[in-house]
Hints:
The complex is a heterodimer.
Chain A lengths: L2 E3 L4 E5 L4 E3 L2 E3 L6 E7 L6 E7 L6 E3 L2 E6 L4 E6 L8 E9 L4 E4 L3 E6 L1
Parallel strand pairs in A: 2-12
Antiparallel strand pairs in A: 1-4, 3-9, 5-6, 5-10, 7-8, 8-9, 10-11, 10-12
Chain B lengths: L3 E4 L2 E4 L5 E7 L5 E7 L6 E7 L5 E2 L10 E5 L2 E6 L8 E8 L5 E3 L3 E5 L1
Parallel strand pairs in B: 2-11
Antiparallel strand pairs in B: 1-3, 3-8, 4-5, 4-9, 5-6, 7-8, 9-10, 9-11
Amino acid sequence: AQKVTQAQTEISVVEKEDVTLDCVYETRDTTYYLFWYKQPPSGELVFLIRRNSFDEQNEISGRYSWNFQKSTSSFNFTITASQVVDSAVYFCALFQRDTDKLIFGTGTRLQVFP
Amino acid sequence: SAVISQKPSRDICQRGTSLTIQCQVDSQVTMMFWYRQQPGQSLTLIATANQGSEATYESGFVIDKFPISRPNLTFSTLTVSNMSPEDSSIYLCSVVRDNYEQYFGPGTRLTVT
């Protein structure tokens, strides 16, 4: 079965704290793609990153970083020095190549307080 | 990336009526997808809209309730028919680019009273 699990339903932090959002996936595919999306209160879904299964290098983009570990089937997302504007729901997703479908996790609501 | 627009951005509708949501993409795409996001929930795929053929619906969604049109490679519509309060959701369309990245429209926030 293909599945994405985001065990953290809600996280609250104070501004400038670092925070890590967990994502664990299940797939039978040997080649697959993982994604993170941000959904601010406005409701739009903002693409953050795509990771290929054959590229285990971690990635950093400004205050955002992603840790991909195939051995544990995890693709965790860290925000360094969080800001109030980071408050949103974050979704991890797994892309099925044979159907072009995205399987979403249940999302993690992040609240950053000033 | 992709520039995707949706109309309307939000609407409040009465029970029993229908609403048609439009999705426009800035370039041609083979497949377009329609998702529903109920309040506080994750995204659920309604159907895949292919140009020139019938849409493919996911389990739990039927054409009579959610008819879809795909007249060309840049446009699609989703109709929510005979609405009930349970249909209150955000409806999003999306497209997949060649590099497997999937982009979403801004969503249509529907409230049924």
